[in-house]
Amino acid sequence: MPTYVAIGERITAAHIRPIAFALTEICLDHSSGTIGRWGHRLIEHGAIDIVANPDFETVLTIEARSNIQLEVIADQFGMSAQEIFREIWSNVRHLRSVLSQKGIDYLELAGALVPKTDREERAFVFDWSQMGGWYGGEVMSCLLPALHRNSSRSVLIGDWAAQVRPRAMLRESGTKLEHSVGGLTAQEIPDTLFFVYLNNLTRSMIAALNKAFVPLRGYVGSLDMTRGSIFKAMLSTMLIRHCVQHRKTVVLGDPDDDDGLWDNAAVSLYDFEEHGFRVRTVPDYLYGPYLSYKIERPVFDFDWQDARFSLNAMSPNPRPLAECHVLLTESRLQYLLSEKAGSLTRADFLGLGAEDIAEQIQRKLDANYIYNLSRSEKFETLKFNIVLEIGRARLVCALKYRPEDKQVEVITLF
Q: How many domains does the chain have?
């Protein structure tokens, strides 16, 4: 049976699965992700979102660690790196357009999707055995009124689902229970735990949330998850990304929506509108890979697909980071000494030569997730960020990606 595509219809993974890639090559204008000869007309009518920065296009994050959508599509169709590159950018441009039509600037979601070194991450802990049958609803009724309404964050939720006891993992991690209710310590918490995990928090935001939770029967306390630990790594495998909160708007994924033309508040059991939030939904195939926050953890062998697709978002001809050499030029080091001496000091890099600093960054490179995947319009520059944890310091390292030269060049530290 032939497959028909309407003029002006955006082609995405959801649409092209039945279509041979040869036909896709003919139909698509890959610079816009829409049907070729109608591309300019669609731009005129606002059907395609135009990137605000004419110099760089950016994908804030790609979640291919637990979300296998890109992996399945690529394997099913035997896609080349060039085809994966076009697929990613077609999806991202569609997502930007959907969000824009709903009053949301995609790049303003950076606080929710990308780790920030000047903010904290926190897991709020509840003993569901002390609560009612729908303990998630009780927790959300306290959480939603207390969320800061002028910033963005991801909201992840879930139960402790490992066979190992949480107190053992906390002891191994050296993580203390804060805001403890009733003087409970980390070594006394039960196994029946429910978590709400939030990123992009200030101390005042954490205090406000704790104040909101204290009256709730079953509230145990909170855990600082800003820095890496065994407990944080374990927790990252258990929680689901429930929503993105952007100021007074909550963004949810909708599994029954293919084009993002409507909003369906019924995809969540929680009544966000009752607490003053607008609900906006996007198709699940866009939400999962591109609006999911990755809780940082060590990069395991089975996480290699995440780096694969993240690098492929920048280049149709990517090269694994393991094959790339980190370069810090002497001129760039002088810039860092002049403008970023505080960052060098915090990282214990002050006094080291360019080669020594590059070597230390090299050791961290393969053990990190990459964010802010950016490319210039004509591919002259590809760049990305990683978060470096060195001792108690957390810094962002911006790097220029040069796959053709097998090099990753340091741009700055902050």
A: 3
d(CA 220, CA 235): 16
**Is residue 260 a part of any domain in this protein?**
no
Please provide the average confidence, as pLDDT, over all residues in the chain. 87
pLDDT 10s digits, 289-340: 999 999 999 987 777 899 999 999 999 999 999 999 999 999 999 999 999 9
Give yes or no: residues 123 and 199 share one domain: yes
**CA-CA distance, 216 to 166, in Å (whole number)?**
21
Kindly state whether residues 31 and 125 are assigned to the same domain. no
CA torsion sign for 283, 289, 294, 300 is positive
Residue 292 lies in a domain: no
Tell me if 283 is assigned to some domain.
no
CATH number at residue 377: 3.30.2310
In this structure, are 101 and 222 located in the same domain? no
* 3-state SS, residue 200: strand
Say yes or no: 120 and 203 in one domain.
yes
Pairing assessment for the beta strands 240-246 and 371-376 based on DSSP bridges: unpaired
Tens of pLDDT, residue by residue over 381-390, are: 999 999 999 9
Residue 287 CB coordination number (10 Å): 25
Short-list 119, 99, 385, 389, CA closest to 263 = 99
Q: Which residues contact 385 (CB under 8 A, 6 or more apart)?
A: 114, 370, 371, 372, 396, 397, 398, 399
- Which of 89, 107, 125 corresponds to the end of one domain? 107
Domain stops at, among 81, 107, 133: 107
Length of the chain: 414
pLDDT at position 379: 67
Closest CA to 251 of 209, 287, 199: 287
DSSP 90: H
Which DSSP symbol is given to 305? H
Alpha-carbon gap, residue 230 to 170, rounded angstroms: 8
Cα–chain center distance at 105: 16
Q: Residue 200 carries which side chain, given as an amino acid letter?
A: N
Q: Which residue has the tokens 């649409």?
A: 15
Residue 169 has pLDDT above 80, yes or no: yes
Strands 152-159 and 120-127, by their bridges, are unpaired
228 shares its domain with 151: yes
| pLDDT tier for residue 148 given thresholds of 50, 70 and 90 | very high
Residues 49 and 96 sit within 8 Å (Cβ to Cβ): yes
Structural domain boundaries, residue 196: 116-247
Compute the distance between CA of residue 385 and CA of residue 372 in angstroms, rounded to an integer: 6
Residue 127 shares a structural domain with residue 242: yes
